Structures are given as C-alpha cells and as structure tokens.
Amino acid sequence: MPANAPVLVGKLVTLRPFGAEDITDQYIGWLNDPRVVRFSNQRFRRHDAESCAAYLASFQHSANHFVSIRRRADDKAIGTMTAYVSLPHQTVDVGIMVGAPEVWGQGYGQDAWNTLLAWLADRADIRKITAGTLEGNIGMQRLMQRSGMTLEARRVAQEIVEGQPQDIVYYARFTDR
Ligand SMILES: CC(C)(COP(=O)(O)OP(=O)(O)OC[C@H]1O[C@@H](n2cnc3c(N)ncnc32)[C@H](O)[C@@H]1OP(=O)(O)O)[C@@H](O)C(=O)NCCC(=O)NCCS
C-alpha cells in the first residue's frame, strides 16, 4: 500500500497497510486452507513465506493497495483486502479475504468492504469501483450488493468449481463525480 494510505477505522474493523510483519504462519495458513480459497484461483498453488513476500513486493511503487483487516476489539489480523487502481481509467478493482472461517458471518467482511469502498469513493481520482466473484460465492455477492454495487456483467460457465462450471459475476458502483 502506498505510504500515503491512511489507517481506516470502521465499526468493527481497522484497515491498515499490509506489511512484511503480517506474513505470519496464520496468514500463510489462510491461503493454503481449501475452505478459504474455495472460489479463488489461489487454490491451485501452494503458498509460503517466500511467495507471500514476492506478492507483497508487487505492490511497491504501484498505485495498488494491500490491506490488513484487524478486528477492532483486539487488533487481531482477520483478513486482507486488495485494491487494484488504474490511474488512466480512474477505476479500482477490489477483493477481500476474511481468513478464518470461524469469524465469517459476523459482519467483519461487510464492515471492511464498506470502509474501504467509502475511502475509495471519496478519492477524486476514482470514478468507478468494480469487483467480481463466482456465482457460488453467495456471501461475497450479498456483501457487494449491500455496498450499493450492482450486477454489471457475467461470464457464463467461466471456471470449474468442484467439477461444475460456474459463471463469474461482475459488480460495479460509480462514485458519481
Ligand atoms: C465472502 C466473505 C468476504 C464474507 O465475509 P464475512 O465476514 O463472512 O461476511 P459478513 O459477515 O460481513 O456478511 C456479509 C453478508 O454475506 C452473508 N454471508 C456471509 N457468508 C455467507 C455464506 N457462506 N453463505 C451465504 N451468505 C453468507 C452474510 O449473511 C451477510 O449478508 P446478510 O446480512 O444479508 O445475511 C468471507 O466469507 C471470505 O473471505 N471468504 C473467503 C474468501 C472469499 O471467498 N473472498 C471473496 C473472493 S471473490
């Protein structure tokens, strides 16, 4: 995350730039947990400290953001977000991973999503926020819909999940500037 990225405070979570110290065994474990990466192409590879460090380094000198999601109650790391910014097109594509399945369904993902989107929507250099997921990822679709995004496009039977072809659904929200 660029040095000028602020710490963002939501109702349940705090968002701050992901740093080298956040590459913990717990974080690597999320990426290697089939439940967490069920709908992600990350499931086709194995992650370790080295691959995570290389991924973190890819954000340096870029306009993109890599975010650590911390639970406000105890500052525990519970997930990550990414925001890939296209400065020429004034768009940003956002992703989220709430890492531990034990903390799913308690509103943390929605609060993290709303908090980062509010900050992005306020930026004068961003006019459109996008995100996508597989149609089987109901939680992710609810989360996008509840943040005011609407379905924009669908790639039919684009990827295979557990033996079944699934559509990728693309959501978007304009920032009205
Ligand atoms: C998708 C994800 C971010 C949701 O985070 P979360 O903290 O569990 O979500 P919240 O508790 O804030 O809930 C947001 C909404 O999704 C719903 N939801 C969450 N998980 C769900 C599930 N497995 N099935 C159905 N609905 C679900 C919640 O009920 C809520 O909607 P509602 O209030 O209308 O009921 C989280 O499950 C996750 O990170 N999963 C693994 C990685 C992933 O799939 N990321 C997205 C890749 S595109």
Map the helices and strands.
Blueprint: E1 8-9, E2 13-17, H1 25-31, H2 49-57, E3 65-71, E4 77-86, E5 91-98, H3 108-122, E6 128-134, H4 138-146, E7 150-161, E8 164-174
Parallel strand pairs: 5-6
Antiparallel strand pairs: 1-2, 2-3, 3-4, 4-5, 6-8, 7-8
Bound molecules: coenzyme A (COA).
In a nutshell, what does this entry contain?
With 177 residues, this protein is of the alpha+beta class. The chain is built from four helices and eight strands, in the order ββααβββαβαββ. Strands 1-2-3-4-5-6-8-7 form an eight-stranded mixed sheet, covered by helices on one side.
Task: Characterise the protein shown here.
With 177 residues, the chain is of the alpha+beta class. Helix content is 23%, strand content 35%. It has helices spanning 25-31, 49-57, 108-122, 138-146; strands at residues 8-9, 13-17, 65-71, 77-86, 91-98, 128-134, 150-161, 164-174. Strand 4 (77-86) and strand 5 (91-98) form a beta hairpin. The model has no long low-confidence stretch (mean pLDDT 96).
What overall form do the CA principal axes indicate?
Answer: globular
DSSP helix fraction: 10-25%
Q: What's the alpha carbon Rg, rounded to whole Å?
A: 16 Å
Percent of residues in beta strands: 35-45%
Order of strands in the sheet with most strands: 1-2-3-4-5-6-8-7
Mean pLDDT across residues = 96
Looking at the overall shape, the CATH architecture of the domain at 8-129 is 3-Layer(aba) Sandwich
Distance between the termini: 24 Å
| CATH homologous superfamily descriptor of the domain at 8-129 | Gcn5-related N-acetyltransferase (GNAT)
Low-pLDDT stretches are none
